[in-house]
Amino acid sequence: MTEASTDTPMIRVSAVDKYFGSSHVLRNVNLEIPRGQVVVVLGPSGSGKSTLCRVINRLETVDSGSVLVDGNPLPEEGRALAELRADVGMVFQQFNLFAHKSVLDNVTLGPTKVRGLSKSQARQEGMRLLERVGIADQADKYPAQLSGGQQQRAAIARALAMRPKVMLFDEPTSALDPEMVSEVLEVMAGLAAEGMTMLVVSHEMGFARRAAHRVLFMADGEIVEDTTPEGFFESPESERARDFLSRIL
Ligand code: ADP
Ligand code: MG
Question: Whole-model pTM?
Fold first, then answer.
Protein backbone atom coordinates (compact mmCIF):
# COMPACT_ATOMS: atom_id res chain seq x y z
CA MET A 1 0.00 0.00 0.00
CA THR A 2 1.26 3.47 -0.78
CA GLU A 3 1.92 5.93 1.99
CA ALA A 4 -0.74 8.61 1.77
CA SER A 5 0.01 12.20 2.64
CA THR A 6 -2.07 13.91 5.29
CA ASP A 7 -4.06 15.91 2.75
CA THR A 8 -5.20 12.79 0.90
CA PRO A 9 -8.86 12.38 1.83
CA MET A 10 -9.45 9.31 3.96
CA ILE A 11 -12.33 8.36 1.73
CA ARG A 12 -12.87 9.43 -1.86
CA VAL A 13 -15.93 8.15 -3.67
CA SER A 14 -15.97 9.38 -7.27
CA ALA A 15 -18.88 9.12 -9.67
CA VAL A 16 -20.08 5.84 -8.23
CA ASP A 17 -23.05 4.05 -9.71
CA LYS A 18 -24.43 0.84 -8.34
CA TYR A 19 -27.27 -1.31 -9.62
CA PHE A 20 -29.05 -4.29 -8.16
CA GLY A 21 -30.60 -5.81 -11.27
CA SER A 22 -32.49 -2.98 -12.87
CA SER A 23 -32.70 -0.89 -9.72
CA HIS A 24 -30.24 1.99 -9.64
CA VAL A 25 -29.32 2.26 -5.96
CA LEU A 26 -26.34 4.65 -6.05
CA ARG A 27 -26.53 7.43 -8.61
CA ASN A 28 -23.36 9.32 -9.39
CA VAL A 29 -22.29 9.49 -5.76
CA ASN A 30 -19.34 11.78 -5.06
CA LEU A 31 -17.97 12.10 -1.57
CA GLU A 32 -14.67 13.10 -0.02
CA ILE A 33 -14.13 12.65 3.67
CA PRO A 34 -10.99 14.24 5.09
CA ARG A 35 -9.16 12.43 7.89
CA GLY A 36 -10.68 13.04 11.28
CA GLN A 37 -14.05 14.09 9.94
CA VAL A 38 -17.26 12.66 11.37
CA VAL A 39 -20.07 12.40 8.81
CA VAL A 40 -23.62 11.44 9.68
CA VAL A 41 -25.77 10.04 6.86
CA LEU A 42 -29.54 10.30 7.03
CA GLY A 43 -32.26 9.44 4.61
CA PRO A 44 -35.37 7.34 4.15
CA SER A 45 -35.29 3.57 4.08
CA GLY A 46 -34.09 2.28 0.72
CA SER A 47 -32.20 5.47 -0.17
CA GLY A 48 -28.85 3.66 -0.47
CA LYS A 49 -27.20 4.43 2.89
CA SER A 50 -26.20 0.83 3.64
CA THR A 51 -25.07 0.28 0.07
CA LEU A 52 -22.82 3.33 0.33
CA CYS A 53 -21.20 1.84 3.45
CA ARG A 54 -20.86 -1.53 1.78
CA VAL A 55 -19.13 -0.19 -1.32
CA ILE A 56 -16.67 1.72 0.87
CA ASN A 57 -15.93 -1.50 2.75
CA ARG A 58 -15.84 -3.49 -0.51
CA LEU A 59 -18.65 -5.75 0.61
CA GLU A 60 -20.24 -4.67 -2.67
CA THR A 61 -18.59 -3.87 -5.99
CA VAL A 62 -19.44 -0.72 -7.91
CA ASP A 63 -20.71 -0.69 -11.50
CA SER A 64 -18.85 2.49 -12.36
CA GLY A 65 -16.75 5.09 -10.65
CA SER A 66 -14.12 4.52 -7.99
CA VAL A 67 -13.62 4.29 -4.26
CA LEU A 68 -10.29 5.15 -2.63
CA VAL A 69 -9.54 4.58 1.04
CA ASP A 70 -6.55 6.62 2.22
CA GLY A 71 -5.53 6.97 -1.42
CA ASN A 72 -5.68 3.24 -2.16
CA PRO A 73 -8.05 1.75 -4.71
CA LEU A 74 -10.06 -1.25 -3.64
CA PRO A 75 -8.30 -4.50 -4.37
CA GLU A 76 -10.36 -7.24 -5.94
CA GLU A 77 -9.59 -10.08 -3.58
CA GLY A 78 -7.12 -11.93 -1.43
CA ARG A 79 -4.70 -10.65 1.15
CA ALA A 80 -4.84 -7.03 0.02
CA LEU A 81 -8.60 -7.05 0.36
CA ALA A 82 -8.40 -8.47 3.88
CA GLU A 83 -5.95 -5.69 4.74
CA LEU A 84 -8.15 -3.04 3.24
CA ARG A 85 -11.12 -4.35 5.18
CA ALA A 86 -8.92 -4.04 8.26
CA ASP A 87 -8.42 -0.35 7.41
CA VAL A 88 -12.17 0.12 7.35
CA GLY A 89 -13.95 -0.98 10.51
CA MET A 90 -17.66 -1.62 10.22
CA VAL A 91 -20.37 -1.88 12.84
CA PHE A 92 -23.80 -3.11 11.80
CA GLN A 93 -27.28 -2.77 13.18
CA GLN A 94 -27.28 -6.47 14.09
CA PHE A 95 -24.12 -6.85 16.08
CA ASN A 96 -22.86 -9.80 14.02
CA LEU A 97 -20.71 -11.21 16.81
CA PHE A 98 -19.61 -14.84 16.60
CA ALA A 99 -22.15 -16.54 18.87
CA HIS A 100 -19.92 -19.46 19.82
CA LYS A 101 -16.91 -17.40 20.81
CA SER A 102 -16.35 -15.43 23.97
CA VAL A 103 -16.44 -11.65 23.82
CA LEU A 104 -12.64 -11.49 24.09
CA ASP A 105 -12.20 -14.14 21.39
CA ASN A 106 -14.49 -12.12 19.14
CA VAL A 107 -12.13 -9.19 19.58
CA THR A 108 -8.84 -11.11 19.16
CA LEU A 109 -9.75 -13.29 16.18
CA GLY A 110 -9.19 -10.69 13.44
CA PRO A 111 -5.91 -9.29 14.78
CA THR A 112 -4.34 -12.76 15.07
CA LYS A 113 -5.56 -13.84 11.62
CA VAL A 114 -5.15 -10.67 9.57
CA ARG A 115 -2.68 -8.49 11.46
CA GLY A 116 -0.44 -11.33 12.57
CA LEU A 117 -0.50 -10.49 16.27
CA SER A 118 0.46 -13.21 18.73
CA LYS A 119 -2.35 -14.56 20.83
CA SER A 120 -1.03 -12.87 23.98
CA GLN A 121 -0.54 -9.51 22.24
CA ALA A 122 -4.06 -9.74 20.82
CA ARG A 123 -5.52 -10.58 24.22
CA GLN A 124 -3.70 -7.72 25.90
CA GLU A 125 -4.85 -5.27 23.27
CA GLY A 126 -8.33 -6.80 23.27
CA MET A 127 -8.71 -6.32 27.01
CA ARG A 128 -7.59 -2.71 26.68
CA LEU A 129 -10.30 -2.16 24.05
CA LEU A 130 -12.97 -3.88 26.12
CA GLU A 131 -12.01 -1.57 28.97
CA ARG A 132 -12.27 1.38 26.68
CA VAL A 133 -15.84 0.47 25.70
CA GLY A 134 -16.64 -0.33 29.33
CA ILE A 135 -17.19 -4.10 29.19
CA ALA A 136 -13.89 -5.60 30.36
CA ASP A 137 -15.87 -7.52 33.00
CA GLN A 138 -17.78 -9.32 30.20
CA ALA A 139 -14.68 -10.62 28.40
CA ASP A 140 -15.24 -14.31 29.08
CA LYS A 141 -18.97 -14.38 28.44
CA TYR A 142 -20.69 -15.37 25.21
CA PRO A 143 -22.49 -12.68 23.21
CA ALA A 144 -25.96 -14.01 24.10
CA GLN A 145 -25.19 -13.41 27.78
CA LEU A 146 -24.73 -9.68 27.15
CA SER A 147 -27.32 -6.95 26.77
CA GLY A 148 -27.78 -5.45 23.31
CA GLY A 149 -25.85 -2.35 24.29
CA GLN A 150 -22.97 -4.44 25.61
CA GLN A 151 -22.98 -6.57 22.44
CA GLN A 152 -22.81 -3.50 20.27
CA ARG A 153 -19.93 -2.13 22.34
CA ALA A 154 -18.19 -5.50 21.90
CA ALA A 155 -18.72 -5.16 18.14
CA ILE A 156 -17.12 -1.71 18.25
CA ALA A 157 -14.16 -3.10 20.21
CA ARG A 158 -13.84 -5.89 17.67
CA ALA A 159 -13.73 -3.42 14.80
CA LEU A 160 -11.20 -1.21 16.63
CA ALA A 161 -8.96 -4.21 17.29
CA MET A 162 -8.04 -4.16 13.60
CA ARG A 163 -6.68 -0.61 14.09
CA PRO A 164 -8.86 0.80 11.34
CA LYS A 165 -8.20 4.15 9.72
CA VAL A 166 -11.91 4.76 9.35
CA MET A 167 -15.03 3.43 11.05
CA LEU A 168 -18.37 2.91 9.33
CA PHE A 169 -21.46 2.55 11.48
CA ASP A 170 -24.68 1.40 9.83
CA GLU A 171 -27.59 2.21 12.14
CA PRO A 172 -25.64 0.99 15.17
CA THR A 173 -28.39 1.78 17.66
CA SER A 174 -31.50 0.91 15.66
CA ALA A 175 -31.82 -2.60 17.08
CA LEU A 176 -31.28 -1.52 20.69
CA ASP A 177 -33.77 -1.02 23.45
CA PRO A 178 -34.07 2.72 24.06
CA GLU A 179 -32.25 2.65 27.40
CA MET A 180 -29.15 1.20 25.74
CA VAL A 181 -28.81 3.69 22.94
CA SER A 182 -26.84 6.27 24.89
CA GLU A 183 -24.11 3.90 26.12
CA VAL A 184 -23.30 3.07 22.50
CA LEU A 185 -23.51 6.67 21.29
CA GLU A 186 -21.21 7.62 24.18
CA VAL A 187 -18.51 5.25 22.92
CA MET A 188 -18.95 6.59 19.38
CA ALA A 189 -18.74 10.20 20.54
CA GLY A 190 -15.52 9.31 22.40
CA LEU A 191 -14.02 7.90 19.20
CA ALA A 192 -15.08 10.99 17.28
CA ALA A 193 -13.46 13.23 19.89
CA GLU A 194 -10.22 11.28 19.55
CA GLY A 195 -10.10 12.09 15.85
CA MET A 196 -11.33 8.89 14.25
CA THR A 197 -12.65 9.35 10.72
CA MET A 198 -16.25 8.14 10.85
CA LEU A 199 -19.21 7.63 8.53
CA VAL A 200 -22.29 7.05 10.65
CA VAL A 201 -25.69 6.11 9.26
CA SER A 202 -27.99 7.11 12.07
CA HIS A 203 -31.12 9.07 12.74
CA GLU A 204 -29.93 9.93 16.25
CA MET A 205 -30.11 13.66 16.00
CA GLY A 206 -28.52 14.32 19.36
CA PHE A 207 -25.44 12.46 18.20
CA ALA A 208 -25.40 14.27 14.86
CA ARG A 209 -25.60 17.66 16.54
CA ARG A 210 -22.98 16.85 19.11
CA ALA A 211 -20.44 14.76 17.24
CA ALA A 212 -20.87 15.27 13.50
CA HIS A 213 -18.92 17.78 11.45
CA ARG A 214 -21.11 17.15 8.47
CA VAL A 215 -24.48 15.71 7.55
CA LEU A 216 -25.39 13.98 4.29
CA PHE A 217 -28.98 13.44 3.33
CA MET A 218 -29.62 10.68 0.80
CA ALA A 219 -32.74 10.00 -1.21
CA ASP A 220 -33.22 7.58 -4.12
CA GLY A 221 -29.53 6.75 -4.34
CA GLU A 222 -28.34 10.34 -4.45
CA ILE A 223 -26.67 12.63 -1.97
CA VAL A 224 -29.27 15.37 -1.93
CA GLU A 225 -27.77 17.54 0.83
CA ASP A 226 -24.24 17.80 2.13
CA THR A 227 -24.04 20.38 4.87
CA THR A 228 -23.41 21.07 8.56
CA PRO A 229 -25.63 19.54 11.27
CA GLU A 230 -27.02 23.01 12.08
CA GLY A 231 -27.64 23.73 8.41
CA PHE A 232 -29.43 20.47 7.92
CA PHE A 233 -31.63 20.49 10.99
CA GLU A 234 -32.39 24.24 11.04
CA SER A 235 -32.73 24.96 7.35
CA PRO A 236 -32.80 21.93 5.04
CA GLU A 237 -32.79 23.07 1.45
CA SER A 238 -34.69 20.33 -0.32
CA GLU A 239 -38.34 19.47 -0.09
CA ARG A 240 -37.39 15.82 0.43
CA ALA A 241 -35.21 16.63 3.44
CA ARG A 242 -37.93 18.83 4.96
CA ASP A 243 -40.43 16.07 4.45
CA PHE A 244 -38.06 13.50 5.98
CA LEU A 245 -37.35 15.69 9.00
CA SER A 246 -41.02 16.38 9.59
CA ARG A 247 -41.55 12.63 9.91
CA ILE A 248 -38.63 11.84 12.23
CA LEU A 249 -38.73 14.90 14.51
P1 ADP B 1 -30.92 2.06 3.09
O2 ADP B 1 -29.77 1.53 3.87
O3 ADP B 1 -30.87 3.53 2.86
O4 ADP B 1 -32.24 1.63 3.67
P5 ADP B 1 -30.03 0.20 1.08
O6 ADP B 1 -28.68 0.64 0.67
O7 ADP B 1 -30.11 -0.96 2.02
O8 ADP B 1 -30.86 1.44 1.64
O9 ADP B 1 -30.87 -0.20 -0.18
C10 ADP B 1 -30.98 0.62 -1.34
C11 ADP B 1 -31.81 -0.11 -2.37
O12 ADP B 1 -31.12 -1.24 -2.84
C13 ADP B 1 -33.14 -0.62 -1.84
O14 ADP B 1 -34.09 -0.50 -2.86
C15 ADP B 1 -32.86 -2.08 -1.55
O16 ADP B 1 -34.03 -2.84 -1.66
C17 ADP B 1 -31.87 -2.42 -2.63
N18 ADP B 1 -30.92 -3.48 -2.22
C19 ADP B 1 -30.04 -3.41 -1.20
N20 ADP B 1 -29.29 -4.52 -1.13
C21 ADP B 1 -29.71 -5.32 -2.14
C22 ADP B 1 -29.31 -6.62 -2.61
N23 ADP B 1 -28.32 -7.29 -2.03
N24 ADP B 1 -29.98 -7.12 -3.67
C25 ADP B 1 -30.95 -6.43 -4.27
N26 ADP B 1 -31.37 -5.19 -3.90
C27 ADP B 1 -30.76 -4.65 -2.84
MG1 MG C 1 -29.72 0.51 5.65
Answer: 0.94
